Amino acid sequence: MAESDRSDRLAGEYFDAAIDLLRQVRDEEGDRITAAGRLIADTVAAGGRVFSFGAGHSSLPAQDTVYRAGGLAIMNLLSVPGVVGVDVRPATLGSALERVDGLAGAVLDTSPLETGDVLVIISLSGRNSLPVEMAMNARALGIKVIGVTSVAYADATTSRHASGGFLKDHCDLVLDSRIPVGDAELTMPGIDAPFAPASTVVTSTIMQAVVATAAGALAERGIDPPLLRSGNVDGGHDWNARVMSEYADRIFYRQ
Q: Where is the signal peptide (predicted)?
């Protein structure tokens, strides 16, 4: 195959790789995704709160569920300054902070999270101190932890936490994103490194599937799920104002 022909096919190959991963997660993680959604529904029905956390690019799927049209208004982002996103300068500082022992405890001690709440922790590798300690400390506080991670990393890498454990070892429920180690789906002669990561596509889909399940589970119990509408459709702002007022004690991104 000529090089120009191969490069013309790369977009399609990436779509195929992402679709294959999504199908694998759907087929092999479906029961656990359902369980995660129902756990969130249980928490909402009991008056609890829901938070999501991720560091670096793993923060993107967490942020994608917060203040989102078509999403649950009670999804909150647990933000750690310098870690969520790549807006910190230098961007490498965020990676360094993920490896700092003790940071997770300080974050949880100053957060609104309480016993009976749910915390979704997203970490592709699950090997750094921050997500591992976040899960350990949260569970010690009586918070239910859902981990979204690639379990394959536990077999191919070593933990950076003193315990030697990974995120997957300290969760009430683990959702395996099935992302291959290295998070790059494509290779090509003449390019020394693999490229085209798919973790954001897959993990964001997992998160939205969990939220959708939670909404459906609430409706099955006769509870109107606190869903947000787009602010760009007529009536959207009024709808959202009503929902946010009703659930004001469980929404923290407005404070």
A: none
Q: Which tokens hold the place of 124?
A: 């592709």
Region class of 126: left (phi > 0), else alpha (psi between -120 and 50), else beta:
left
Q: What would the pLDDT profile of 113-169 be if each residue is shown by its tens digit?
A: 999 999 999 999 999 999 999 999 999 999 999 999 999 999 999 999 989 899 999
Q: At what angle do helices 3-45 and 199-220 cross, to 10 degrees?
A: 30
Q: How far apart are CA 20 and CA 118, in angstroms?
A: 30
Q: Round to whole Å and give the CA distance between 211 and 205.
A: 10
What 8-state DSSP symbol labels residue 179?
A: P
- Give per-residue pLDDT as tens, 187-216: 999 999 999 999 999 999 999 999 999 999
- The pTM score is 0.94
DSSP alpha helices (H): ranges in 46-186?
59-63, 92-97, 103-109, 129-140, 152-156
Burial 219-241 (b: 16+ CB within 10 A, else e): eeeeeebbbbbeeeeeeeeebbe
Torsion angle (degrees, nearest 10) of CA 156, 160, 165, 167 = -90
- Cα–Cα distance for residue pair 20/40, rounded to 1 Å: 27
* Alpha-carbon distances of 35 from 77, 189, 247, rounded to whole Å: 21, 43, 24
